[in-house]
Design brief:
The chain has 466 residues and is an alpha/beta fold. It has 16 helices and 14 strands. The strands form 2 sheets. Strands 3-4-5-6-2-1-7 form a 7-stranded mixed sheet. A 7-stranded mixed sheet has the order 9-10-11-8-12-13-14, sandwiched between helices. It is flat and about 85 Å long. The protein binds guanosine-5'-diphosphate. Guanosine-5'-diphosphate binds next to helix 9.
């Protein structure tokens, strides 16, 4: 069954929604949002200006001081701002109230808005309405989601580039529309000489579009490294300095480290940003053979973490010759598809380790002193391995969601297929079919053509009030 297409220019909502947009709990002020066609009328039943005219009779978007009523009694005083449609976040009539940030008082005011005719907003519903009213492309909405969950400065910069990405996606879409209308003209009126482009021009334009789509899709390498976290395992025999390295990496980014509930003491799991790259870092127990049942559980967990890793930091003590335990680890790691970096720790001490023994298993080595040094060399190498260094966060259009990347890759495939058909002189209707598929995929990236389930999934990650 073909997915139902959403048209962002056709709002489907008639209800007026309300929610507290600030986090629950005690605070200086709280923000309550009200959006929908009855926003002004509902607001006026709950909020009475202390001086002068009613809220809807004031100049738009000006702060008005007044009192909040609950069952006809004043419960608080605060401010209201009326944003008449379409000049609001959602594109609908919107009123934003600020009241005192007590849990009960915000609850009472919200309840009053519900009694006056508003309905509770669901998670992300304000932003979802903004998207459906054409105020915001889907890629921008996704970028706002990234901003809300940002754990690193790099993620914030990535989200800040959302206009650039949205413009690039729109530009590609418009180019595909122009090309398609050209081949459609050739299908509908084959005898007439209507097509504005010659076959050669069409081929060249399609090839160029395919290249630009492919180029944008390739930025996902950086986008993913910044936004998703590369599963990374630190391993090595006891006493080489794994914990010291782990603490060094955490310490450098202590402010943005988050702990995951449910991890055990034998595999610690944290998010750490190393330069521009976000690591999902696992500090494991060693993976040697052991008779101790408790230790064996830790070892089994370490093996599992390793099998899912994309990056492995294998730590060695550079101040000692390699031991058999190190060699066992090297042999085990060689089997993994992950990118392997050998970390030659304790480089503050005289070197005794023969690095030639590592060359075969590790394409990359970094010497450092976890105890006294910095992880800068490791940060530079990781950035080089997992991102396109030519891209600047916040300045370049960078694809950061798996969904957008998949849609762009599909578009590139269809455009390439269209080029092949054009080159081999197939009839226009066959080329047109590939172009239509390419256009549909491009339309999915910015939300011009998108399945309702996809929209629901994107907004389900937002909080209520956003
Ligand atoms: P793990 O068992 O691999 O986690 O190793 P630890 O991090 O507990 O470190 C083992 C010992 O090596 C500790 O005494 C650390 O202080 C020491 N150590 C760790 N890193 C360095 C380093 O870079 N230089 C020196 N000289 N000692 C280190």
């Amino acid at each position: 069954m073909k997915p139902r297409l959403m048209k962002p220019t056709m709002p489907e909502y008639t209800t007026t929604i309300a929610a507290v947009s600030t986090p629950p709990g005690k605070g200086g002020v709280a923000l309550i949002r009200l959006s929908g066609e009855n926003a002004a009328a509902i607001a006026e039943r709950v909020f009475v200006p202390v001086f002068g005219k009613r809220l809807s009779e004031r100049p738009p978007r000006t702060a008005v001081y007044g009192r909040f009523l609950s069952d006809g009694v004043t419960v608080d005083d605060g401010m209201a701002l009326f944003f008449p449609a379409p000049h609001s976040y959602t594109g609908e009539d919107t009123v934003e109230f600020t009241c005192h940030g007590g849990r009960l008082v915000t609850h009472l005011i919200l309840e009053s808005l519900f009694s006056a005719g508003a309905e509770p907003a669901t998670a992300g519903e304000f932003t979802r309405r903004a998207f459906l009213n054409g105020k915001l492309s889907l890629s921008k909405a996704e970028a706002i989601g990234t901003l809300l969950e940002a754990q690193s400065r790099a993620q914030i910069l990535l989200s800040a580039g959302r206009d650039r990405l949205s413009d690039r996606l729109d530009g590609l879409y418009r180019e595909a529309v122009a090309l398609l209308s050209n081949s459609e003209a050739a299908i509908d009126f084959p005898e007439e000489d209507l097509a504005e482009m010659t076959k050669e021009e069409q081929l060249r334009a399609t090839e160029e579009l395919a290249d630009r789509v492919t180029e944008l899709a390739a930025t996902y390498r950086t986008g993913r490294a910044v936004s998703e976290g590369i599963p990374t395992v630190i391993c090595g025999r006891p006493n080489v300095g794994k914990s010291t390295l782990y603490n060094l990496l955490l310490g450098e980014e202590a402010a943005i480290v988050s702990e995951t509930a449910g991890t055990t003491r034998d595999v610690l799991e944290r998010n750490v940003s190393l330069g521009r790259v976000l690591l999902r870092l696992y500090d494991t127990a060693g993976i040697r053979e052991t008779a101790d049942p408790v230790e064996r559980i830790g070892v089994e967990r370490a093996r599992r973490a390793l099998s899912g890793a994309s990056l492995v930091f294998a730590v060695f003590d550079r101040s000692e010759p390699l031991r058999d335990e190190d060699r066992e680890l090297i042999a085990a790691l060689k089997e993994l598809p992950a990118v392997r970096i050998a970390i030659l720790n304790k480089s503050d001490l005289p070197r005794k380790l023969d690095e030639a023994e590592l060359a075969d298993a590790f394409p990359y080595t970094v010497a450092l002193s976890a105890q006294s040094g910095s992880a800068e060399a490791l940060s530079v190498l990781t950035d080089r391995l997992f991102t396109d260094e030519t891209l600047t966060l916040g300045d370049d259009a960078i694809v950061f969601s798996a969904r957008q990347h998949a849609a762009l890759s599909r578009a590139a495939e269809h455009l390439t297929a269209a080029c092949t058909l054009l080159r081999e002189g197939y009839p226009a209707d066959m080329t047109g079919e590939e172009m239509r598929e390419a256009l549909a995929s491009l339309g999915q990236t910015n939300g011009r053509e998108v399945n309702e389930d996809v929209v629901a999934e994107i907004f389900s990650h937002f909080c209520v009030g956003k």
